[in-house]
Amino acid sequence: MMQSAGMTSVSRRLLGRLRDVMAGSGSAQDRLDKVVKLIAADMVAEVCSCYVMRAGEVLELFSTEGLKKESVHQTRLRVGEGLVGDIAAHARPLALADAQVHPNFVFRPETGEEIFHSLMGVPIIRGSRVVGVLVVQNRTMRHYTDEEIETLETVAMVLAELLVSGELVNRAELVPVDGNALLPLRMEGVKLNGGVGVGVAVLHRPRITIQRLVAEDTDAELERLKKALTGIKLALEELFSRPEMRDGEHRDVLETYRMFAEDKGWLNRISEAIHTGLTAEAAVQKVHDDTRARMSQITDPYLRERMHDFEDLANRLLQHLAGGDDDQRPGAADLPEGAILIGRNLGPMELFDYDPKRLRGLVLEEGSATSHVAIVARALDIPVVGRVKDVLDKIEPLDPVICDGDNGQVFIRPPDDIRETYIDAISQRQLRQAVYARLRELPAVTRQDVRIGIHMNAGLLLDLQHLHDSGADGIGLYRTELPFMARSSLPDVAAQTLLYKKILDQAEGKPVVFRTLDVGGDKVLPYWNPYEEDNPALGWRSIRITLDRPAVMRSQLRALLRAAQGRELSVMFPMIAEVSEFVQARLILDKELERERAMGNPMPSRLKVGTMLEVPALALQLDALLPMVDFVSIGSNDLTQFLFAVDRGNPRIAERYDSLAPAMVRFMRYVAAKCAQYGVTLSVCGEMAGRPLEAMALIGVGIRHLSLSAPNIGPVKTMVRSLDIGALEAYMNTLLKSPDHSLRNKLKTFALDHGVVL
């Protein structure tokens, strides 16, 4: 404790002197020279050197006390080269009693550092970017303490302001130069939420400029931090009181956010930074930069996404500390009509800072479909394109932008013809939606009055609003894993029961098929450690996980049974590869049924049990399976992947095989015939069902139930009502032995010749 208190004293004294030097007169180089001399003296080091990042990721020695002066501006190291380069590459400190025996040590004879053995270095970080490295060295084999490292990190944060001021290195030197910022540009990304928006760019750069880094009064800074945290909590309570926040996964997202705001470890690190002599603002920024630097090395997608919650909190804390409130945050005022919000990433509350009525789209450099901001954006019906690399470097405020969420594309400063094409497409889309709305109450029947079941896919409570608007017959696939992924811990039986009851209530008697938990692969739960696999799509996922962890399945099935309360319940098990897996899952369900009966709880009026058919092996066991099930649903997405041995995430081969290939169509025909033989209902719930041409082919091979996303229901129903099913079935029979790569063009020709509306 005595040493810690002593180092805190050193840190405060040093920070006070640095403040005076940096606020003094002279050039930036003069002030930097004084700073390194001051650090060396205060930390009892024979050397203090400052390396500054230059263009091309090169670290240049800008100032030193103790090394040869002629090496200044001459000694350069690439990021990753030597110990200094290693510190920059990993954005983490390094302390070595004998640096010269380290495998990364690189000797630069012009510096004269061969006489110095021990080395301690820390990255100089501004935002999430390493802008330099600060190093101290000693002749003896000195063992640097954690407190000394902490002191040097604190000093480095103050020094960062000088390095990014533009006085030492022109800011323009580090701006990416590829591409002309004034030319039209199309950038590729990933669809996070569908839809198209045309508008102007609003840059989401919420960084607050910190004017005061060194504290005058530590107690006063701690009190300011406490008040800022209180302000955030009050803003959250106000948000929770809004009518639109009463239900839905977006409320769960903000509940998780509130937990982050109360994270004791995070708050303690900020308090500790204040005790070293920083202002509350500087302490928040330091802890955030440290956290981001550490988490940038993490590959787990969930943990990386949660970093954005902390980033949102840090920015919000800085806003409150600066004396503002949530209505004064950058970009919230004077938002133009038709704004396309551009950012690296957003926390879940930041989207609420902007008027959703004025937002036309959201473009992110990072993000994923399961990120909290994506869930909130879906609740607000805002198109989102994520993973658009370096978009902030290529765009200026109020640039014209098209956010094409349907295709994962962003057009920056589009030519007039492209802009007009999209505006026309939006108008046509609105007209088509009006036509589809008029079809809402009409049945999906072919010209011969053959009824086709059109059901909706859903995964969030907010999707239920589209069930009745779209005219769907029910929900053919409710993905229960999405609410699990929106939470920070496994929901208990009571929480699940409440959710499933709300879904059945809002369905108002229309059937709902609940698919049990389907996680693993690219769907990671935050409270389960991911299992490292070479090929997770073929690994420990879906039913394999829940059969291995039956308590999870039991709690979910128990919640579903309790939610039904006298209503019909349909349960579907995912990724069944062999009949024995279905038997095991059904046995768990039967035990839960017996348990609920014994407790006197009301039973479902009718229980239907089915399976997904995604693994081709199951199709070879249909004679054993079909007598056991009430229904089968083909998941065409995974089936295509497994049938053709193609990784859907690999861009080189993802589009190599067509879902309308003869093999796929013949597979569908075989399964449809088998299900008809046993009187088992068959549906398709993957992407094939949502595209009119593919849906037409499915109907042509005998499939009579389709489950698709809500926006696709209108187009598919329109196709069905224009279809001559007799002519289609006869034509499909002639195609099944085709050697072609795809039947797509032939089916398009059939549709054109027979007046089928696609």
CATH superfamily of the largest domain: Phosphoenolpyruvate-binding domains
* Sheet with most strands: strand arrangement: 7-14-13-9-10-11-12-8
Biggest sheet architecture: 8 strands, mixed
**Count of domain modules:** 4
Number of H/I helices: 25
Strand content: 15-25%
Number of strands: 22
Distance between the termini: 75 Å
Outline, from the CA principal axes? elongated
Structural class: alpha/beta
Helix content, binned percent:
40-55%
CATH names the topology of the largest domain as TIM Barrel
Specify Rg, calculated over alpha carbons. 31 Å
What's the CATH C level of the largest domain?
Alpha Beta
Uncertain spans, ≥5 residues at pLDDT below 50? 176-182, 325-332
CATH-defined architecture of the largest domain: Alpha-Beta Barrel
Q: Please, what is the average pLDDT? A: 85
Family: Belongs to the PEP-utilizing enzyme family.
Subcellular location: Cytoplasm
EC number: 2.7.3.9
Pfam family, one: PEP-utilisers_N
Keywords:
4 domains; phosphoenolpyruvate--protein phosphotransferase; eight-stranded parallel beta barrel; metal ion binding; alpha/beta; about 15% strand; PTS_EI-like; Enzyme I, Chain A, domain 2; transport; about 750 residues; Glucose Oxidase, domain 1; 25 helices; about 40% helix; Beta-Lactamase; eight-stranded mixed beta sheet; kinase; single chain
Provide structural commentary.
The chain is of the alpha/beta class. The chain has 4 domains: 7-165, GAF domain (Beta-Lactamase, 2-Layer Sandwich), CATH 3.30.450; 185-198 and 334-417, Glucose Oxidase, domain 1; 218-322, Enzyme I, Chain A, domain 2 (Orthogonal Bundle), CATH 1.10.274; 440-754, Alpha-Beta Barrel (TIM Barrel). The chain has 25 helices and 22 strands. The chain has an 8-stranded mixed beta sheet with strand order 7-14-13-9-10-11-12-8. It has an 8-stranded parallel barrel with strand order 15-16-17-18-19-20-21-22, surrounded by 6 helices. A 6-stranded antiparallel beta sheet has the order 3-2-1-6-5-4. Strand 5 (118-126) and strand 6 form a beta hairpin. Helix 11 crosses helix 23 (713-721) and helix 14 packs across helix 16. The radius of gyration is 31 Å and the shape is elongated. It starts with a helix and ends in a 5-residue tail after the last helix. Residues 176-182 and 325-332 have low confidence and may be disordered.
